[in-house]
Design a protein that fits this description.
The chain is of the alpha/beta class. The protein contains 13 helices and 19 strands. Strand 13 and strand 14 form a beta hairpin. Helix 1 packs antiparallel against helix 9, helix 2 packs across helix 9 and helix 3 runs parallel beside helix 4.
Length: 419
């Protein structure tokens, strides 16, 4: 293995004890869960927060004038404040609960493009997840808008910043970009990109799905107009996401969905809207999801996001160092370099002569959970000249010993199924 000094790892192995699912055996082997970019496991405190709500305070929020409803409403709105503090928002009114980051981007694609005209441009990048691509395609088709894309430099796995500058000269109205690539682990210079776009009056959106639970996120420091992420990628439950928006911008926007909760006054002919954030939260919300996400945020803050980021990066670097020594393995993105630029705990690779699906299926025999495919990044995969990759993504409960097992398993696959 590598010469990295394991004693410098800041997160102890005992953190695994907080996650009940990790104690099980898979196909007779200890579970090694390395699919954290797709979804993360849930600590006991999150499970307890959700079950406690169902046992003790299950009721609808906001409208009830009885004890259970008041208790549920208090917990739901407290969760909003927890998230606002987590992101360093100016006000908890800037936090909208959604089903996911995907729904948040769909909301923005629908609302922000209402005021655009035929021929207006939207700027994206070639490394966007389909969730930050398809909604804009649909909006562009409906409004006859033009989509431009910042290219990815295939060898480096980073954005072409010279091309970015040239594309800004086309005067896009909206710029939407991922903070961390889920396919490459590339960490984009988000503050620089946002600052440059906003200096030209461009509305900026950050997809923080891969960063919100892995490193500190300060929306005032990033200075973006909007930001989205999903709870299930940061120890929270599924079906809950966050849309952050500057208060003045949210107040100017019309709602996306209509129904209960989001109205002020309704007649048979017309309606007026509730104040933000409720204007964008039509219908009964995912109350338990918000409560569970707040519990996850408190859990992560207690550990410290800087420590989590260091841990993730170090495990990915350790794995990359070992896999680079295997001739049959190709690494995509920054970690293919010995001294990579900024990167996250995501390692995409392939074994020459073997489909990524086969690699992952064989790794599963050893109890290792990887991800295979295009990772909802089909345009990026085509840019890289790859049909698919295998992906190992690390989180706070992964250990150096699990990296060792991953590397040993790759050697085992090559020896027994390739040579």
């Amino acid at each position: 293995m590598s010469s990295i000094d394991f004693s410098q790892f800041l997160l102890p192995d005992k953190l695994r004890d907080e996650f009940p699912i990790l104690s099980q055996l898979v196909r007779g082997q200890p579970l090694v869960y390395l699919d954290n970019a797709a979804t993360t496991q849930k600590p006991q405190v999150v499970i307890d927060a959700i079950t406690s709500h169902y046992r003790e305070a299950n009721a609808n929020v906001h409208r009830g004038l009885y004890y259970l409803s008041e208790r549920a409403t208090s917990a739901y709105e407290e969760a909003r404040q927890v998230i606002a503090n987590y992101l360093n928002c100016s006000s908890n009114k800037e936090i909208i609960f959604t089903r996911s980051a995907t729904e948040g981007i769909n909301l923005l694609a629908n609302c922000l493009t209402q005021k655009l005209s035929k021929g207006d441009r939207i700027l994206l990048t070639e490394m966007e997840h389909h969730s930050n691509l398809v909604p804009w395609q649909l909006a562009a088709q409906q409004k006859q808008l033009i989509l431009d894309f910042v290219p990815v430099l295939p060898e480096q796995g980073t954005l072409d910043l010279d091309a970015f500058e040239k594309l800004l000269s086309r005067e896009p109205k909206i710029f939407s970009v991922t903070h961390i690539s889920n396919g490459l682990g590339t960490v984009n210079p988000i503050e620089k990109l946002v600052s440059r776009a906003r200096s030209l009056g461009i509305t900026t959106i950050v997809d923080a799905s891969q960063s919100a639970g892995h490193k500190p996120i300060n929306v005032q420091q990033i200075a973006c107009d909007f930001l989205v992420f999903s709870g299930h990628k940061m120890c929270g439950p599924s079906g809950i996401g966050i849309l952050y928006g500057r208060q003045n911008l949210l107040e100017q926007m019309d709602p996306w969905q209509g129904g209960g909760e989001m109205i002020s006054k309704v007649t048979l002919e017309t309606s007026t809207w509730a104040e933000i954030p409720h204007k964008f939260e039509a219908g009964t919300p995912n109350i338990e999801g918000a409560i569970g996400l707040a519990a996850a945020v408190k859990f992560l803050k207690k550990i410290d996001l800087q420590r989590i980021s260091y841990h993730d990066q170090t495990l990915a670097k350790l794995a990359a160092q070992e896999l680079r020594e295997i001739p049959q393995v190709k690494i995509f993105g920054p970690l293919h370099q010995q001294h990579p630029p900024e990167y996250a705990g995501i390692l995409s690779f392939s074994i020459k002569g073997m489909h990524a699906h086969d690699v992952v299926a064989l790794a599963d025999r050893k109890g290792i959970a990887l991800r295979a495919g295009h990772h909802c990044n089909q345009p990026l995969m085509r840019r890289l000249g790859a049909a698919s990759t295998a992906r190992a993504s690390f989180y706070l409960y992964n250990t150096p010993n699990e990296v060792n097992k991953l590397v040993q398993t790759i050697h085992w696959i090559i020896k027994n199924y390739l040579e």
